[in-house]
Amino acid sequence: MEHIPAPRTLLDGLAMVESGRWHDGRLWFAHWGVGEVVAVDLDGTAEVMAPGPPQMGWAIDWLPDGRLLTSGPELTRHEPEGTAVRHSERGGNEIAVDARGRTYVNGADFDFLGGGAPKPGWIELVEPDGSHREVAGDIQFPNGMVITPDGTTLVVAESFAGRLSAFTIQDDGSLADRRVWAEGLGPDGISVDAGGAIWVQTADTHSEDPDAPQGAVVRVLPGGEITHRVETPMPCFACAIGGPNGRHLFLLCNEWEGIDRAEEVLARRSARILVTEVP
Q: Does any domain span residue 91?
């Protein structure tokens, strides 16, 4: 396993950051608790690009024609002139859009932030016309979700199970051949690189020592082989591969003291985005 150079801070003073995506020459991300979609370049210059839900638990992606989607209570499409319209009534947590403009949305039907009893989650497919149907169930708290570069496989983070699960994408968008990609992890927001490997959080870094790393991200191949690792001073909630040549790894880091103290953490604005280069 190869270690990656220690990351540097790209942007700080943020409430809570999630759903990092490299798009149009910048890293875009969901600024939770503030209700903003923000883009930042490699020099650390940030710009608010669109509104988002003023809550936790939403994500971003783009339709093939470049229009931005945000999840949340419903799936919202942001038109080029700046208007936001309902794309589908089917809201949720994380989203992933395929080359045909079909959007995979995941979620779970219990109030996680309110301390509700956990229930298995689901993945639904939203067609370009907004219609939707369930394509997978029994997901143990679905979180980050990606489609491999060849468009054949969808991988979802099952946070409560500590694993990544993969599905083969059928011609009609259905998901089949469910299998374990890797397990023994601490998956949240994940990213896929050009080689088809997944960058994902580990479950082995929570330490009582404040000077010790509090998070780590690894590159994992199908079957669970880990090839690279980088550690972070704060818990890493999401990661994204990007940069001009796809050689930058962005790490979206947040403090976390439990659901009952989430508002305190948001107000503290201690979240930051780190970046390093990968081989």
A: yes
Q: Is residue 39 part of a domain?
A: no
Examine residue 167 and state whether it is found in any structural domain, yes or no.
yes
Find how far residue 262's CA is from the centre of its chain: 19
Q: What is the mean pLDDT of the chain?
A: 94
pTM of the model: 0.95
Give the span between the Cα atoms of 82 and 68, in whole angstroms: 10
Positive or negative, the Cα torsion across 279, 185, 270, 239?
A: positive
State the pLDDT confidence band at 164, using cuts at 50, 70 and 90.
very high
Tokens of 117: 């009893």
Question: Residue 113 — very low, low, confident or very high, per pLDDT cuts 50/70/90?
Answer: low
169: three-class secondary structure by DSSP: strand
Predicted confidence band at 114 (pLDDT cuts at 50, 70, 90)? low
174-195 exposure pattern, b = at least 16 Cβ within 10 A, e = fewer: ebeeeeebbeebbbbbbbbbee
Please state the domain count of the chain. 1
Query: Beta 271-277 vs 60-62: how paired, if at all?
Result: unpaired
The CATH number assigned to the domain holding 170 equals 2.120.10.30
